[in-house]
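Please predict the structure of the following assembly.
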Amino acid sequence: EIVLTQSPDFQSVTAKEKVTITCRASRSIGSSLHWYQQKPDQSPKLLIKYASQSFSGVPSRFSGSGFGTDFTLTINSLEAEDAATYYCHQSSSLPFTFGPGTKVEIK
Amino acid sequence: EVQLLESGGGLVQPGGSLRLSCAASGFTFSSYAVNWVRQAPGKGLEWVSGISDGGGGTFYADSVKGRFTISRDNSKNTLYLQMNSLRVDDTAVYYCAKDGGATVTTSKYFDLWGRGTLVTVSP
């Protein structure tokens, strides 16, 4: 099973700041890494597919990068509505796995 | 409207059974793999099971293998999860999630999620 680790676990930032979340895979997964946003009491929503491709309708302040084992989600100029937990997910091999999540709070 | 709508959750005793359903609308359901993903209270996401477009390929997490069965009825645009021998640690919100691809073995990403249905296993 591929284990995904995320850092940090929690981040408290002010609006308009830049946020960087990392996801590391226990072995190479190529670009089969996707990012989701989950707001309180809502279901997850796809933000970034295949490490760096923005999903339809996602604001341009969200971007992703990485390949192999190390990946990054960047939120440029954080907005209040971005308060949420962010998860990475690998579809390279079964069982599919998710990272433990990074909670982003707005100060 | 493109959506997934889960139902069938509830309170059940350990050892009991439940059948979850997920009704799809607004897209060609039969062209995509679909998955169940669960989230225990206050915890992260856990993939539970997936089924390919035609229903021929089914896959499970080790934690539910032998107890849960995934199936689909493409004529009714509906996904199912039969859950038997339920345990306290199966307590979670269960989401259905549409895959961007047709088969589980060539899974892409989960691009559409339902709102979830809560399953509580308690004596």
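The mean pLDDT of chain A is 97. The first strand of chain A starts at residue 4 and ends at 7.
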